[in-house]
Amino acid sequence: MKIENRQRFLVALTIGVAALYIGVNFICVPLSNLWSARSAQVKELRAKVSEGKLLIKREAGLRSRWSEMSTNALPNNPSLADQQVLKLFDNWSRETGAEISSIMPQWKNDSTNYMTLNYRVEASGNLGTLSQFLYDIEKGPAALKLDSVELSAHDNTGRQLSLGLQISGLSILQPTK
Question: Which residue from 169, 86, 44 is spatially nearest to 52, judged by alpha carbons?
Fold first, then answer.
């Protein structure tokens, strides 16, 4: 091979290798990454669409559950909510025989959409009355949740028990129009 042909061959080979390097690093790899990102995005969007379709199928049940929850929530007015919850505690204590010694309410404005009413309740009675009292609180229609329960004995035999409860109530704030 002549020197001139060799030089032309080496120049052409160098240009080909440089073009291949540029093509791989600046065209193929970014396009491959873009393709992978798009396919991941399409997969995520398909999952969201299928989740949305499931929500649409469950719309009636979800709306009825939300309606039930919003009607059972405490009133927006703090005095009405206190009155309603105190009446519930009074009814539960009379039905079960548990003796309530103190109820301490405290309002918290946690969000613009809702407020919580926290109660510290002290009650006493035997194991049967206190367990029925707890059951009534949990299964009652009001939007109340037991946060913590403390149980202690007043006597050596454990027949007279003391119950300390932390209870949260939910009040949903209606948006102003």
Answer: 44
